[in-house]
Design goal:
globular; mainly alpha; 209 residues; three-stranded antiparallel β-sheet
Length: 209
């Protein structure tokens, strides 16, 4: 057969379809309660299907299998426990008319030289945006605990200053807060747990920048 005839024959052959035979329905995607496609997802550290689906942290086959089941269980315990601990400490402080963020701001100013700190540094330490810090300072200013003043040495920036009333309030809050932390956190530590935990948190902080 000539080349011309061969090419004509090939063109005349029917193209095979990759579609499923008629009567068979295509597989339906797995969806969550909100209707979103959840195929291959929903495995977050400690999920029962982690081993079978090789699904780690909500991904499947994403090249992160170096994180073990034990690693993800540790992450889940950390996430849930810190959230619960924060909520319990917040509840205790609110019984004294103070939020956890109020207390942390007072603590930073109490430990700062002359009980004052530049607004930029304070926002960085609290992981606050400038607008959120301004709001928080405004709340404490209305109580007479903190004042926002222009920095005297350069006259350009602003700083937060702990007032005499704020110092008194912090000293009244501190004993009850210390008892709560002792009860809810320190009492669970053994041996060199505190040293090891602090070292771990510094390493994590180093990764976060």
């Amino acid at each position: 057969m000539s080349n011309t005839a061969t090419r004509a024959s090939e063109r005349s052959q029917p193209v095979r379809s990759e579609r499923a035979p008629s009567g068979s329905a295509p597989p339906e995607p797995v969806t969550g309660s909100d209707g979103a496609d959840a195929t291959g997802a929903a495995c977050i550290g400690g999920a029962e299907s982690l081993g079978d689906a090789e699904c780690i942290g909500g991904t499947q086959g994403a090249g992160i299998s170096d994180a073990s089941r034990q690693d993800w269980d540790a992450w889940q315990v950390y996430f849930e426990t810190t959230a619960l601990l924060t909520a319990r400490i917040e509840e205790r402080l609110k019984q004294h008319g103070c939020s956890l963020m109020d207390y942390q701001l007072l603590l930073l100013l109490y430990n700062a030289p002359e009980h004052r700190m530049r607004m930029g540094e304070l926002a960085h330490r609290l992981i606050f945006s400038p607008s959120r810090l301004s709001y928080q300072i405004g709340v404490l200013d209305k109580r007479g605990w903190v004042e926002r003043r222009r920095v005297e040495c350069d006259g350009r920036g602003f700083e937060a200053v702990l007032t005499a009333e704020g110092l008194r309030a912090f000293r009244e809050l501190r004993p009850a807060h210390a008892r709560d932390v002792q009860e809810l956190f320190f009492s669970a530590l053994q041996g060199d747990d505190a040293v090891r935990l602090a070292d771990l948190m510094r390493r994590v902080g180093g990764l976060l920048g």
